[in-house]
TrEMBL record:
Name recorded for this polypeptide: Glutamate 5-kinase
CDD domains given in the database record: AAK_G5K_ProB, PUA_G5K
Top EC class of this enzyme: transferase
Source taxonomy: Bacteria, Bacillati, Actinomycetota, Actinomycetes, Streptosporangiales
Glycosyltransferase among keywords: no
């Protein structure tokens, strides 16, 4: 962490608000003081901040976090301005300019939006600003209900080729059980996925203000480390110590295997399948074991509506998703191609049909032990 020159810091709602849901100005100031100190040491800082929904609850007279999407979005639209205003004042006291950047996972799915976000964030860093990134809760649909700012932080870290990711929570580290119980052990390092086997990660934070919980933070760390970004998970109170390189929290080591390409990481974590293509057993083995392209001969069924170039889930006959890829055909075209060789298709339909359903360069494996897929869109 002390060698990192570009750091993405993610802070959750529970670390920024009081117990009654109000923005805690002292906590925001403490965090900005820490980040400004690193910025003064010539470290580029990108802050991914939750808290818009929580900040908007009190002005709207809401006692508990709303469950329906429309009220969540209303609270976010009120709270986002309050949240950024506090950051703007706090960073201004250090002579720093805060810049609001609102993103959704959909922005990370669309490659043109993805590149635009990268250019904007890079330019903000070049001119010395501190980008404050948040999920655009006022227009998000699926994402707002699952606390994806954790995942968004990991994707931003990859997007900007950050040197480190710091995930701040209301818990000081990852534990091998409920940290409130005697005998529970802090997990200091995670170097391989096997290090977390048998660990009860739980599902929610202590405060109940946010939505991500420890599960999404561990998933975020996994995404970042797959991209080669070392990650530390700790509490907001330990932010300064973590940035100073002290042994706090839980350290997730970057993967030692070959880093996935930008397209592979994008496909695996920033897209959702717009439909499903069902494979026969031979095609499943070829895709999983041989890193082969998916040919028309291996397809037995198509579900959902999608267009050429869309991401689709590749499933086995039991409906379990094994991979995701960018499809070369519209959904309506594929039934006429199923079970045919590309040579036969080229001879009967024309040379433009001598191509894969999904080329291996546009395909990423989601699991070697496939899990059941969500229903097709």
């Amino acid at each position: 962490m002390t060698r990192a020159r570009r750091v993405v810091v993610k802070v959750g709602s529970s670390s920024l608000t009081t117990h009654d849901g109000r923005i805690d100005r002292d906590r925001i100031r403490e965090l900005t003081d820490v980040l400004a100190a690193r910025r003064a040491a010539d470290v580029e800082i990108v802050l991914v901040s939750s808290g818009a929904v929580a900040a908007g609850m009190t002005p709207l007279g809401l006692v508990t976090r709303p469950r329906d999407l429309a009220t969540q979005q209303a609270a976010a639209s009120v709270g986002q301005g309050l949240l950024v205003a506090h950051y703007t004042r706090a960073f201004a006291d250090h002579g720093l300019t805060a810049a609001q950047v609102l993103l959704t996972v959909d922005d990370m799915m669309r490659r043109a939006h993805h590149r635009n976000a990268q250019r904007t964030l890079t330019r903000l860093l070049d001119i010395g600003a501190v980008p404050i990134v948040n999920e655009n809760d006022t227009v998000a649909t699926h994402e707002i209900r699952f606390g994806d700012n954790d995942r968004l932080a990991a994707l931003v870290a990859h997007l900007l080729r950050a040197d480190a990711l710091l995930l701040l929570s209301d818990v000081d580290a990852l534990y091998d059980g409920d940290p409130s119980r005697p005998g529970t052990r802090r997990i200091a390092e995670v170097r391989e996925p096997e290090d977390l086997e048998g660990v009860d990660i739980g599902s929610a934070g202590r405060r109940g203000v946010g939505t991500g919980g420890m599960v999404t933070k561990v998933e975020s760390a996994r995404i970042a480390t797959e991209a080669g970004v070392p990650t530390i998970l700790t509490s907001a109170a330990n932010a300064g110590a973590a940035l100073d390189g002290e042994p706090v929290g839980t350290f997730f080591a970057p993967a030692r295997r070959r880093r996935p390409s930008t397209r592979q990481l994008w496909l695996a974590h920033a897209t959702a399948g717009r439909g499903r293509v069902v494979l026969d057993p031979g095609a499943v083995r070829a895709v999983l074991g041989g890193r082969a392209s998916l040919l028309p001969a291996g397809v037995i069924k198509v579900e959902g509506e999608f267009s050429a170039g869309d991401p689709v889930d590749l499933c086995d006959e039991d409906g379990r998703t094994v991979a995701r890829g960018l499809v070369n055909y519209d959904a309506a075209e594929i039934p006429n191609l199923m079970g045919r060789s590309t040579r036969w298709l080229a001879r009967e339909l024309g040379p433009e049909y001598e191509r894969e359903i999904v080329h291996r360069d546009g395909l990423v494996l989601l699991s070697r032990t496939p899990r059941r897929s969500a229903p097709a869109p």
